[in-house]
Amino acid sequence: xxxxxxxxxxxxxxxxxxxxxxxxxxxxxxxxxxxxxxxxxxxxxxxxxxxxxxxxxxxxxxxxxxxxxxxxxxxxxxxxxxxxxxxxxxxxxxxxxxxxxxxxxxxxxxxxxxxxxxxxx
Length: 121
Hints:
The protein has one helix spanning 2-10, and strands at residues 19-20, 25-31, 37-45, 51-58, 63-67, 70-71, 76-83, 91-101, 108-117. By secondary structure, it is mainly β. The strands form 2 sheets. The protein has a 5-stranded mixed sheet with strand order 2-9-8-4-6, with no helix packed on it. A 4-stranded antiparallel sheet has the order 1-3-7-5, with no helix packed on it. The longest helix has 9 residues, at 2-10. It is elongated, with a radius of gyration of 18 Å.
């Protein structure tokens, strides 16, 4: 009986949210140091229940986030990541944030921002 109960917990029944996102990474290309980075990742709830973005946790304190927390079935939402101060950046940098959702097939994902900073004379 216990194993059957555990299986029911792992496989939820009824309508579920489904997060669909075209890309998990954005590359800004080559930029001058001091150029702020900001990108808005667009996604859609292709499920039959509301999609909840429970948390967006940047890997470091230099990255900030803003996001739509509840997305109805068939609707779109966005998660914005930004790095305001890049004056001291040199070379290729990669900033990431872990997103936690209520999608049973995709409970978490990592979004990435990439840029190469070069001093242009």
